[in-house]
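Researcher: I'd like a candidate sequence for this fold, 106 residues long. If you have to choose between options at a position, lean toward the conservative one.
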């Protein structure tokens, strides 16, 4: 069951508790407008598989650095296809959108 579960939260204390009891679950750290010092070690301490951020925090160097360490970056909530395309070119793994059907329009 744990391979199908992903816990994601802005409340990182909850993520710490999940790790304390079972490190098998995937963890996605949500951040909004927070530039953290020592981000990589912070995410590793939380056992994060993904770092989910808003577009204001997107930084190509950071995305590359995290990817090298096995942590993917996802961006929320983007509803403009042009912006989504730019984010993928910068190396993000995925985006959250309210309009996924826009990808299938000609």
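Model: Candidate sequence:
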């Amino acid at each position: 069951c744990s391979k199908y579960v992903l816990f994601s939260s802005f409340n990182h204390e909850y993520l710490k508790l999940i790790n304390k009891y079972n490190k098998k679950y995937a963890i996605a750290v949500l951040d909004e407008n927070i530039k953290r010092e020592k981000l990589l070690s912070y995410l590793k301490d939380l056992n994060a598989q993904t770092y989910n951020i808003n577009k204001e925090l997107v930084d190509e160097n950071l995305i590359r650095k995290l990817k090298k360490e096995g942590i993917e970056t996802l961006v929320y909530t983007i509803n403009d296809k042009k912006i989504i395309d730019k984010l993928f070119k910068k190396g993000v793994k995925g985006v959250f959108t309210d309009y996924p059907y826009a990808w299938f329009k000609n």
